[in-house]
């Protein structure tokens, strides 16, 4: 027995086993206590509530939703709203962050100081306060619906949102979609061909300009051939509010603005550190080889800087997604507001609702992580 | 062990440190105070006064229970809860009683593991609009943007009302009442909807309260009252009878001012039972026999409580209406203490 104990491998195993048993016991007792307590209080459990009628309205929904829809549908509405604001926020924050980050390194004194001021001001103020600031700053300065700002009877701005014409596709519009898809495939093939040709012959094809041109012109041409099968629904003042058209509500604007501006301040610093991490000698070597300023940036600096930029950038994307849950404070109907707010309160099933909500955030976060890791892998040093 | 774990799991939405106990009375006596869940600032129900002390008819129910249990109405600690947090806080045992202008409904009573222990205010939902809209009736509100509080019966009632009248609406639901009021004041919505008492109370917070009018329609029944966990009947009894003692006291004309004189004058047997000079009513609740005397002495009777927080001398000045005792044409009616 003692001999066994003296064997470090066996001892290691025993410790592992004890730890595992304790962990399992801990998990099991959590679960068991939860069940016992829920049952003894007569609190409803299970996921059947997802199929019951929700009975409450949601102000903005990307999919069809009404009071007679189910709680499950309300969950989807919230999830899509979260994704909408996160995806747009990530896109805009990256653009703005890149601009500010490059601005920080500018030789122009004014630009670099402005960028510095932006970063230091924005990243040091709590996000929730910024959300409230944008929401109430925007709300209070906008006119009421009857005094809307009117741009040519097409666009209206008031404290209920921005109203714009909504495109209504008619018979034959689908062809333009197919044309777009085909052009997209064509563009991918074009890219491959251009890269291969450049490797073989050294000749450069202006692939970006040609591709973007193709993507715009071809679907438009298809539409024109059919005489533009598209009509527009215009917003119009009816009673209290505008009806018809597309609307962007102030809650959405406030949360998108706040998330973009806040996250951009972090991204700017990440971009700056990335670019500064590339040795100055690299630029000089590239220029002495005859590369232009643009080529130096695109082919020499950025690929190396990206290796430093991507991992912390991933964290910022994840932060933005999770921060979007603060939108509940300004009534934007995202996942936490709709599902972990109203639905939780109407059904009282806190454990299920919170578990689903946490699971969903985890899942989206892991997906973003996966995508960014794949990109990181693609961008890392190729060792030959 | 069991009890600590439920709090950790069930209350992921908040931080609960103590577990829910099957015997709340001993837990409360053990820690020396009642942990009471109240609102985050609804004048007349629970809001801080100029000294920062919390006041209101919800706060007073907590104080009454503390007076009954400890003989000291000050032995209360408050947890200020948003509408969406309140039930989880009670279920998980973070608080002992929830008195947060909470409507008794079927689903809440049967599905959430809760018991309602009486009604301290009979309310109903109404609408408030700007006067310059020229709206006379809620039936004219089709197409309006409606601001309200998330996770309340209000949100559902508004949906039901607009739906059943074939009217369109846009609901803007905020997590906290203060944001609802701020957004309505900033013109985000045409309509602000909540319980009528809430409308009257929140109106005092608006920039120019005279510019707003409460529409005549009452679209729902909102019996508001204290809530306890399902299954702990003794604790439920204590809360229920504390509230009833206050109503019975008003009915018998016993107030905090004359309670000592009434206690000395033993001619009225039902008053003797109320004040604990005969019988052992308190013991049956697990309390001392002067439990109700302490409530009346320190908190007052129901009418005193109402006048102090909602009556004509307050800025809210809500007509008592159906909250009068049944003897005065209202529906406040408490079972007798006998």
Structure description:
The complex is a heterodimer of chains A (384) and B (338). Chain A is an alpha+beta fold. Among the domains of chain A are: 2-42; 71-145 and 248-379, Orthogonal Bundle (MetI-like fold). Chain A has 12 helices and 8 strands. A 4-stranded antiparallel sheet of chain A has the order 1-2-3-8. In chain A, strands 4-5 form a two-stranded antiparallel ribbon. In chain A, strands 6-7 form a two-stranded antiparallel sheet. The two termini of chain A are 53 Å apart. Chain B is α/β, with parallel strands linked by helices and 338 residues long. Chain B folds into 2 domains: 2-122 and 224-328, 3-Layer(aba) Sandwich (D-Maltodextrin-Binding Protein, domain 2); 125-220, D-Maltodextrin-Binding Protein, domain 2 (3-Layer(aba) Sandwich). Helices cover 37% and strands 16% of the residues of chain B. Chain B contains 14 helices and 14 strands. Chain B has helices at residues 2-10, 24-31, 57-70, 86-91, 106-111, 153-164, 177-185, 196-203, 233-252, 259-264, 269-275, 281-284, 291-298, 302-309; strands spanning 34-38, 47-48, 54-55, 76-80, 97-98, 114-116, 121-123, 125-130, 144-149, 169-174, 191-195, 212-214, 222-224, 227-229. A 5-stranded mixed sheet of chain B has the order 10-9-11-8-12, sandwiched between helices. Chain B has a 3-stranded parallel sheet with strand order 4-1-5. The longest helix of chain B has 20 residues, at 233-252. The model of chain B is unreliable at 1-21 (pLDDT under 50). The interface between A and B is large, with 51 and 58 residues.
């Amino acid at each position: 027995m003692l001999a066994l104990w003296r064997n470090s491998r066996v001892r290691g195993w025993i410790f592992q086993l004890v730890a595992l048993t304790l962990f399992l016991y801990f998990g099991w007792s959590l679960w068991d206590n939860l069940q016992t307590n829920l049952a003894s209080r007569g609190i409803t459990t299970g996921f059947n509530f997802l199929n019951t009628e929700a009975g409450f309205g949601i102000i903005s929904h990307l999919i069809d939703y009404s009071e007679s829809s189910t709680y499950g549908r309300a969950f989807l509405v919230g999830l899509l709203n979260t994704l909408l604001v996160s995806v747009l926020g990530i896109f805009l924050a990256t653009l703005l962050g890149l601009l500010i980050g490059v601005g920080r390194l500018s030789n122009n004194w004014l630009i670099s100081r402005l960028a510095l001021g932006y970063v230091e001001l924005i990243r040091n103020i709590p996000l929730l306060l910024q959300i409230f600031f944008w929401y109430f700053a925007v709300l209070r300065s906008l006119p009421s619906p009857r005094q809307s700002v009117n741009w040519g009877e097409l666009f209206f701005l008031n404290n209920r949102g921005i109203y714009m014409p909504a495109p209504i596709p008619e018979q034959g519009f689908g062809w333009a979609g197919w044309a777009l898809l085909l052009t997209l495939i064509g563009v991918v093939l074009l890219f491959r061909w251009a890269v291969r040709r450049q490797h073989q012959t050294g000749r450069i094809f202006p692939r970006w300009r040609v591709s973007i041109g193709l993507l715009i012109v071809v679907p438009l041409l298809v539409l024109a051939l059919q005489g533009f099968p598209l009509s527009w629904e215009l917003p119009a003042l009816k009673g209290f509010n505008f009806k018809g058209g597309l609307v962007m509500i102030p809650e959405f604007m406030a949360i998108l603005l706040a998330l973009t501006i806040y996250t951009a301040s972090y991204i700017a610093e990440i971009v700056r550190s990335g670019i500064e991490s590339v040795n100055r000698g690299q630029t000089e070597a590239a220029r002495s080889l005859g590369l232009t300023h643009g080529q130096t940036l695109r082919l020499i600096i950025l690929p190396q800087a990206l290796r430093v930029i991507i991992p912390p950038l991933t964290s910022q994307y994840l932060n933005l997604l999770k921060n979007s849950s603060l939108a509940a404070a300004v009534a934007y109907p995202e996942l936490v507001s709709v599902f972990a707010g109203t639905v939780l309160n109407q059904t009282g099933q806190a454990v299920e609702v919170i578990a689903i909500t946490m699971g969903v955030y985890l899942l989206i976060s892991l997906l973003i992580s996966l995508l960014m890791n794949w990109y990181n892998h693609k961008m890392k040093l190729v060792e030959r | 062990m069991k009890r600590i774990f439920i709090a950790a799991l069930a209350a992921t939405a908040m931080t609960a440190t103590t577990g829910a106990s099957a015997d709340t009375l001993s837990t409360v006596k053990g820690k020396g105070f009642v942990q009471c869940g109240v609102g985050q600032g609804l004048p007349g129900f629970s809001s801080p006064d100029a000294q920062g002390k919390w006041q209101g008819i919800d706060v007073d129910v907590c104080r009454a229970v503390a007076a009954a249990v400890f003989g000291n109405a000050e032995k209360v600690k408050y947890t200020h809860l948003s509408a969406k947090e309140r039930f989880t806080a009670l279920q998980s045992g973070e608080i002992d009683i929830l008195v947060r202008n909470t409507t008794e409904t079927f689903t809440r009573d049967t599905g959430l593991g809760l018991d309602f222990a009486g009604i301290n205010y009979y309310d109903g939902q109404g609408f408030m609009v700007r006067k310059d809209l020229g709206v006379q009736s809620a039936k004219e509100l089709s197409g309006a943007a409606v601001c309200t509080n998330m996770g309340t019966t209000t949100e559902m009632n508004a949906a039901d009302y607009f739906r059943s009248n074939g009217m369109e609406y846009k609901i803007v639901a905020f997590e906290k009442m203060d944001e609802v009021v701020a957004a309505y004041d900033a013109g985000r919505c045409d309509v602000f909807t909540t319980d009528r008492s809430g409308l009257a109370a929140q109106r005092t917070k608006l920039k120019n309260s005279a510019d707003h009018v409460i529409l005549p329609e009452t679209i729902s029944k909102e019996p508001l009252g204290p809530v306890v966990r399902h299954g702990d009947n003794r604790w439920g009894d204590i809360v229920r009878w504390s509230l009833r003692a206050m109503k019975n006291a008003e009915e018998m004309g016993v107030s905090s001012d004359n309670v000592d004189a009434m206690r000395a004058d033993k001619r009225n047997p039902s008053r003797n039972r109320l004040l604990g000079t005969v019988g052992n009513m308190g013991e049956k609740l697990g309390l001392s026999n002067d439990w109700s005397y302490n409530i009346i002495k320190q908190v007052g009777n129901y009418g005193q409580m109402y006048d102090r927080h909602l009556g004509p001398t307050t800025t809210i000045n809500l007509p008592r209406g159906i909250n009068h005792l049944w003897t005065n044409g209202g529906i406040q009616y408490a079972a007798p203490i006998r």
